Hints:
The chain is of the alpha/beta class. The chain is 21% helix and 18% strand. The longest helix has 24 residues.
Amino acid sequence: MNMMKALVIFALGILLGIGISAIGYGVHKHVDFAKKAEHLKDHAVVAMDKVFGGKVRAARLEHVVPPAPYFPPGAIWTQDISHAPLDPQSSTIIGWLADAGGWGNNNKMQVDFSLRVLQADANTPNVPFKGPGSNSIDSDHPSLFPLPVGKGTSDKSEYQCDVSENDCQLLVVDRSRGKLYEAYQANYADDALNAGFVAIWDLNRMYPPSGRGDQCSSADAAGFPIAPLLFNADELATGSINHAIRFVLPNPRIRAHVFVHPATHAGAPAGPVSAPPMGARFRLKASYDMSKLTPEAQVVARAMQKYGMFLSDGGNIALTAQSDQDTKAKYTDLDFDSHALRALKVTDFEVLDMGTPIRLTYACVRNP
């Protein structure tokens, strides 16, 4: 009880200090008061949160709104697969992957928070786009690209990026026009946006299993849209993720020379026939013991059981979540960090029926 009183007094003291600082702000105009006050307020809220058993945190997040779906109802990314049949090779694939080292990253399921999803509207400035040559069939070739002010790519807080060292993925959704722009190796220079690749997705379209076209890439190696497969802090705060999740594996653990729908491309995997192919959909087993996870991590795990997760690219950090730079909720408020899902092992998953693998040729044929 004495400890509780001390924490309350401490928290109230910090809040009082913020008020006093506000008075001094008129005198010391060169102090970044807003930033310092916000920092102090966060510490006060954390202290009060410990005292009142999460009620303060809940109050901070009560106005969080879940993000709207990216595609029409029934899109493959939002289909309930909790009772979908397993692939005949599910046990073989999972067993091989476990023996090969699992997720990568020393077999730890870790979360990467670097990818941003920027919001555009009719008032967002459009800049000239200079992309791949016109013979690049996979890539779209817009004359203009929406570029929200004061934002940045996945690797930088600005739009200038060294594409020789970074992926520099630029994800911009413009719901007013029903478009999702996803660029790879994006860099703004000389009053124009340059990129190695750009895919423009129609948010009002029900894409077929072959997506933008068989043998066609996107800003992701599998040919998928990226943003619709990223979970974010606002979804965790509302307690529900209503779509499949993106995951990656090291290239030597992805089956070479093939992909399965809804993937349309495969990049450079180098694994044997026992490895999962690009586009494989994993599902967390219904029998998984959720008590191993925190409440926020359970939100992700339930999505993995209901919607699954798609093998989307090659890499060592298994999961990719949206950065919280552009969401109302913050991961620190939710006690969710990059290791929140480390209890999940490859053997906790199963592989859903994949259909017939498609031979990789790189001969992109775009869908109309």
